[in-house]
Each structure stands twice: as C-alpha cells, then as structure tokens.
Design goal:
Length: about 425
C-alpha cells in the first residue's frame, strides 16, 4: 500500500490522516508548529454547525459590507493590500454575491454537513466524546432585525429540524439571553448541532494516530515548496531537508495557497482573520447551555467545558496574526452587553486565527492535475464542522471509490 504524506497538523490534516490510515495507507504527518492544532484549530468557535452552513457570499452582502466599515463595532475590517491574490479573491467573491449562487452552494454544503455529522459519529468508537468536551446542545440563531428574522424564517434550509421562536421564547430556551431579550426580534433553534473543544479534539486524534500500526509519526518542520518532475510531485523541501513519498495531501490551512503555487496550483484562498475570547465559568455565572449565534453581529457563543468561548469578526488584513486591541475591546463590549452574567470577563483570554476561506465558502478537496497530489483545503470558519466529512471523501477518492455525492463546487478547477 502507498505511503502518504499529509501536510498540515490542524483538524483537517489530522482527520485526513486518520481516514487514510483506516483506508489502508501508511501515513506520515508534516506540521510546522511544535504541537498539532496550534493555528486555526486552537481557539476557534467550537461549533459543529452541520445545518447552519449558508455561505457568506449572498445578495446584499457587498452593500452591507460597506455599511459595516463605518460602524464602530463592525464585524468586518478591511485593509487593501498590494497583493493580487486579495484582489482576485474579492472579485470571485463579489461574483458569487447573488441568491442563485448562494442557494447552489448551500445545497452542496448541507450534503457535506450531513456526511460530516455521520463521520464524526464514527469516531465515537475510538475517541470518547468527553475527551474533547462534546455537547449535543443544539444551536440558536438570534436576530435583532425583524426584517432579517422574517427573511430567515421565509427561506428554511432544514425545516424539519428547526423551531421558530419569539424573543421571549429565546430567553426561555436560553436564559443567558435574558438581558438581551428586548433587543431581539426572534430566533431559530436547530436540534442536532453540537459544540466541542477543537484543540482537544486535535490532541485526541493525534493520540490515536500515534497508536496506529501504519502511522509513520509526526514530523515537525516547515514546508517550503514542492518539487515537480515529469508531471508528478517528486518531493517536498522542508526545514529538515527534502522528503519524498508516493502521494501527498495538502491540508495546511492558509499556507496551502503558497505551497500549492509551487506545484502550479492556483488555490482561491484568503485568510479571514477571526477573534475569540475565552473566559472561565463559575457557579455564580449564567453561561449559555445552547450554542448561540448573534446573526447581525456575527458573534458565536459556546460553552466548552468550564469555559465560555466567544468567536467573531472578519478582518481582511492579510496574514496578520497580531491581536488588535481595539478589535478585542470591541468584542468584549458586545459580549458584556449581550450576556453580562455568562462568565468572568475579568479573566478573559483573547486569541486570533486565520481561517482559510474560498470565495464561495466551499472547501476544495480531491484530485489535482498532478496525479499524486491531493487537496483538502479552504474550510474557512467551518473547518471543525466539515473536517470529518471531507476526510472521509478524500479517503474514498484516493482509493478509487466514488464520492458519496457529486463534488460539484468542492472539486478543484
């Protein structure tokens, strides 16, 4: 059986390695950080939103984006770069900001979401759920604008699984919203959605990888470039020297666009910088039991173990990982206003990560023009949600089997 090198030790790379091992491959993992799950997987929102998958690109988003840029606590920050990759990404994004493109991509992501839910359930045999604080609590999306709320109610994507709630009912089903009740128009509650600690999940998967008889270990080194010879990848140059194997899987988050370019691939990825806050929950606090999304403010609230995780914001500022104090203060202000009693905000810990997003919010997976180079990239803010599903599809494709559904927009073009 072939030897495979998986490049990237985040949640997507780790799950890819696991499914390939289970498919019979011998697998080695290449990760540049000293520990797995240290980049976008480290302190993300923790939500497993299998049914709430609507792409960011939609009709009305460009106008809304312009309005956000003039708001004090805007969920969007934009800085024009002297980088053609940003311009191309924006042009492709704007081309998809219409209802037809949004519906088409949403339908495909719902298929992927359901497969991901089933694939995550398969891991329960190997990884107990309490190892990564998994909770099947459901998801509540709350709306402040009656117009937005009515629009969401009018176009259901999974009507059989959702409940439409008034503002008062939102505060009943989730008491942490009591102080924000007067600001809400209503909400939509979906059962079957979950929250978990993505970093703890990464560590749990890595532990199972190390115990697998066909796993060749984790190599901690920087990947620089692919070497291509006669239409195939002949190796990859790293900080520890060249590495060569039979097949390669690129799952390195935003680094994938630079590495892919060395093999002649043009990957439409852009780093959407997001922030999160983590605060301890004490017995005196009223933390949310349900995963909550504040739709207009694009803010996610999730209880992960004994911590409150709040994730928000999209900063289009290139590969800048620095913590902007103004953005952190803005997020903390919104959190205290919405859920003032949810956690100890005096001990809050901020974090920022780069979410590798495609213009249509759909991951890219499967074959490339190079027969021994495969992709599992571009998951954006839904990396944790889609990781198991895309890993399962990748393993099928690499073993010559058909995907469980037509890939369509998920395939590399």
């Amino acid at each position: 059986m072939q030897q495979v090198l998986v490049i990237g030790g985040g949640v997507v790379g780790l799950t890819s390695a696991w499914w390939l091992l289970e498919a019979g491959y011998h697998v080695t993992l290449l990760e540049r950080e000293p520990q797995v799950g240290q980049a976008a997987s480290y302190r993300n929102g923790g939500q497993l939103s299998y049914r709430y998958v609507a792409p960011f690109a939609d009709a009305g988003v460009p106008l809304k984006g312009l309005q956000w840029m003039f708001e004090k606590d805007s969920p969007l920050k934009f800085r024009l770069e002297a980088d053609p990759r940003q311009w191309r990404w924006l042009a492709q994004f704007l081309a998809r900001c219409n209802a037809n493109a949004n519906r088409k991509t949403t339908a495909k992501l719902l298929e992927l979401g359901e497969l991901s839910r089933q694939s995550m359930a398969q891991l329960e045999v190997n990884i107990p759920l309490d190892e990564f604080a998994w909770r099947d609590a459901g998801k509540l999306v709350v709306y402040r604008s009656k117009k937005m709320f009515d629009g969401a109610v009018g176009r259901p994507e999974s009507e059989d699984a959702r409940e439409v709630l008034s503002a008062a009912e939102c505060a009943v089903i989730e008491p942490a919203l009591q102080e924000a009740r007067a600001q809400l128009a209503g909400g939509i509650f979906t059962r079957g959605e979950a929250v978990a600690d993505c970093h703890a999940f990464c560590l749990a998967v890595a532990s199972r990888l190390r115990a697998h008889p066909r796993f060749g270990g984790i190599v901690h080194a920087d990947a620089y470039r692919f070497a291509v010879h006669n239409g195939r990848v002949s190796g990859i140059e790293t900080s520890l020297g060249p590495m060569a194997t039979d097949a390669y899987v690129l799952a390195a988050g935003i680094q994938s666009r630079t590495l892919g370019a060395t093999a002649g691939l043009s990957l439409p990825l852009y780093p959407l910088k997001g922030y999160s806050l983590t605060a301890p929950i004490g017995p005196q606090h009223r933390a949310p039991q349900i995963s909550v999304t504040d739709f207009e403010r694009k803010t996610l609230y999730a209880r992960i173990g004994d911590k409150l995780r709040v994730a928000a914001m999209v900063d289009m500022v290139g590969e800048d990982l620095s913590l902007d104090p103004a953005r952190v203060d803005s997020l903390l202000r919104l959190v205290k206003e919405t859920m003032p009693q949810a956690a100890d905000y005096n001990q809050v810990s901020p974090w920022a990560g780069l979410r590798p997003a495609t213009p249509n919010s759909a991951p890219i997976l499967g074959a490339t023009p190079l027969p021994n180079l495969w992709l599992n990239v571009g998951h954006g803010p839904l990396g944790f949600t889609f990781a198991c599903g895309t890993a399962a599809i990748l393993a099928k494709l690499m073993t010559g089997q058909a995907a469980p559904f037509a890939l369509g927009e998920l395939a590399y073009r």
